[in-house]
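Design a sequence for this backbone.
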């Protein structure tokens, strides 16, 4: 079994999507024949400490003041916002009803992974990377092309500037601190050093056809070319090559970056980009580099009208993509939504959109027929507010393909090469969920230099109760059943709401206190929804989608801990070792398995259906019953616990739990007698 772990997992995306045939008839003015309007009162009980952040300004977040740390409140009345409750329930309903994954971004992520030869390194080995200067003029981006960048060794810069780069960047301890790996670290150390340089090009090694780098050395003004020194980041420590005793044989090649760049002074041509185009090259660049310290530095200069250094690739007389280093973050071929199954891309309304509404294109918007109120705290706040917590949230980026994309393999090990968003077969892993757990986990410890990136908060303690109301308008019976099913799950299951779910916070039990405006029992609505899904898809209740969702909704003991990996583990799990002679993979990379495969003694977690039944036969403790809602007269044996002492007779109405075998009713279990 592989060792890749995460505090979250995924419900796989189905290739099938359920589109209700009544979606085009939805109206707020013309009621359905079986449409009902009413109100559901809910009680939300915290199974673990819970935190939903208060409304705050950007300045509050930067200062991390009391407003930022506080639980959501109005005049000291603490509440869970309606949007948080609605979001949690809608996500469950989307999964239960085989809905579309429609509420996602469509970003294009970037890749910088030296271990991926096919998807990354091959591009830079086979393509010419240009260098140049980028400026911004209102909504236009201009990139001046200065040709192929030259390289200058750290030892040469040390001589020129009286620095110590050649030794400093061999220090692994120094580079463990993130800010020391940035270009900004070097820029600040050389702020007053001259960047303009006259140079001469060194002879290339003709025996090495792969190495096409043009190295240079400083020279005097009258006998050289002119360029500008450009400093880029230091992703890893420099290691010098190791030679044999006689200095004739290279035992180990040098590794790590030991040089910086020279941009030639002459401009070759220039390219123009639209700065505002949503799916354009510039906007893709901005998204890929949005968390980059170096981009934050350069962006300020760009907005002031200054030019900034970039590296880029050209195709068909246009910029294909660009970045802030020679081996820059390469944009993936596919965007996020390209990795969805085809039916998830349709504009037709799924059941969730029919109920909650859709904010799609202007001509495809649909107003929701369900509204949630805030859920206000029902307890004495002075007794249940806890001490301040300071977690460091170190979640892997959504571009981390061993976790966020489906991979081919077994037991957590890759079969062949990793699938990335460069591949036409890339498919998203699924709906992200945080498994319910028995105990809280310890917060991650920030790496050196990251202490400021904690997210302090005051949570509300386990056992706190909140109440809210859900108002619905003109819902069909199946829709009401889907809503109630998503709210209640089953008697052992919990929802997750709020912040720090990765550590066990925000686990809540939602109960229905009352329902106003419905003609039938709660169970009959849930049963109507379940039967609808059973008719639509074979073995609905045993589908892998429901299995994964319900497995994560109750606590389990897992084979691998529910926690984030350390930085080194993220790198190690992607590493694949190949035989140097045969090129066959000797050590496979790892991927995150689905949650049901990580549970010890993996049980199935059924999605129970409750309903009402009538006793049709009774004799010495043996009973047969029929489901009141069934149109046929088929009867079933009634199962009863040995300690359930109830006098039942023919004609009595009872509540039962329907136990399924595949898509068929297996037996009915007695719950209680109805008055």
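Sequence:
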């Amino acid at each position: 079994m592989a060792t890749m772990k995460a505090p979250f997992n995924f419900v796989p995306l189905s290739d099938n999507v359920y589109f209700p045939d009544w979606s085009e008839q939805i109206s707020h003015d013309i009621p359905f024949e079986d449409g009902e309007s009413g109100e559901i009162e809910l009680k939300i009980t915290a199974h673990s400490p819970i935190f939903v952040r208060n409304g705050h300004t950007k300045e509050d977040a930067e200062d991390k003041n009391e407003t930022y740390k506080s639980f959501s409140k109005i005049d000291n009345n603490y509440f869970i916002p309606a949007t948080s409750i609605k979001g949690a329930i809608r996500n469950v309903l989307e999964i239960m009803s085989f809905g579309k994954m429609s509420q996602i971004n469509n970003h294009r992520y970037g890749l910088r992974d030296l271990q991926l030869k096919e998807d990354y390194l091959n591009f830079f080995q086979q393509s010419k990377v240009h260098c140049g200067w980028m400026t911004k003029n209102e909504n236009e981006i201009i990139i001046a092309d200065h040709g192929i960048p030259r390289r200058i060794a750290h030892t040469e810069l040390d001589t020129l500037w009286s620095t110590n780069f050649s030794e400093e960047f061999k220090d692994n301890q120094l580079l463990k601190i993130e800010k020391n790996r940035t270009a900004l670290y070097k820029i600040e150390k050389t702020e007053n050093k001259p960047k303009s340089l006259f140079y001469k090009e060194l002879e290339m090694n003709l025996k090495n056809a792969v190495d096409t780098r043009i190295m240079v050395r400083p020279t005097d003004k009258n006998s050289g070319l002119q360029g500008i020194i450009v400093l880029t980041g230091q992703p890893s420590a420099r290691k010098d090559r190791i030679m044999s005793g006689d200095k004739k044989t290279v035992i180990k090649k040098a590794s790590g970056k030991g040089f910086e760049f020279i941009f030639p002074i002459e401009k070759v041509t220039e390219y123009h980009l639209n700065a505002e185009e949503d799916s354009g090259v510039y906007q893709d660049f901005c998204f890929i580099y949005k968390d980059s310290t170096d981009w934050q530095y350069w962006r300020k200069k760009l907005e002031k009208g200054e030019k900034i250094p970039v590296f880029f690739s050209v195709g068909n007389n246009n910029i294909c993509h660009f970045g802030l280093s020679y081996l820059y973050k390469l944009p993936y071929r596919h965007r996020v939504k390209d990795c969805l199954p085809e039916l998830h891309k349709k504009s037709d309304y799924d059941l969730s959109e029919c109920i909650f509404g859709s904010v799609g294109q202007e001509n495809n918007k649909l107003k929701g027929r369900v509204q949630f109120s805030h859920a206000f705290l029902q307890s004495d706040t002075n007794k249940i507010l806890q001490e301040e917590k300071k977690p460091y949230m170190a979640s892997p980026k959504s571009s981390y393909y061993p976790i966020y994309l489906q991979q081919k393999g077994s037991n957590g090990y890759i079969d062949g090469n990793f699938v990335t968003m460069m591949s036409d077969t890339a498919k998203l892993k699924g709906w992200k969920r945080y498994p319910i757990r028995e105990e809280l986990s310890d917060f991650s410890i920030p790496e050196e230099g990251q202490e400021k990136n904690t997210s302090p908060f005051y949570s509300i303690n386990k056992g706190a109760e909140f109440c809210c109301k859900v108002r619905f308008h003109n819902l069909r019976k199946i829709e009401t059943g889907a809503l109630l099913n998503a709210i209640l799950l089953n008697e052992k299951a919990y929802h997750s709401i709020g912040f720090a779910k990765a550590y066990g916070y925000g686990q809540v039990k939602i109960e229905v206190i009352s329902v106003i405006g419905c003609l039938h029992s709660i169970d009959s609505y849930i049963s109507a929804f379940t039967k609808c899904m059973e008719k639509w898809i074979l073995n609905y209740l045993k589908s892998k989608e429901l299995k994964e969702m319900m497995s994560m909704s109750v606590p389990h003991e897992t084979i691998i801990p529910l926690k984030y990996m350390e930085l080194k583990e993220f790198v190690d799990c992607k590493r694949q070792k190949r035989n140097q002679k045969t090129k066959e993979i000797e050590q496979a990379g790892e991927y995150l398995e689905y949650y049901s495969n990580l549970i010890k003694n993996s049980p199935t977690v059924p999605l129970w259906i409750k309903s009402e039944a009538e006793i049709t036969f009774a004799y010495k403790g043996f009973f047969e019953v029929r489901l009141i809602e069934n149109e046929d007269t088929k009867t079933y044996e009634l199962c009863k616990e040995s300690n359930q002492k109830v006098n039942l007779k023919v004609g009595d109405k009872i509540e039962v739990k329907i136990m399924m075998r595949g898509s068929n009713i297996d037996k009915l279990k007695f719950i209680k007698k109805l008055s």
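Residues 9-109+336-598 form one domain.
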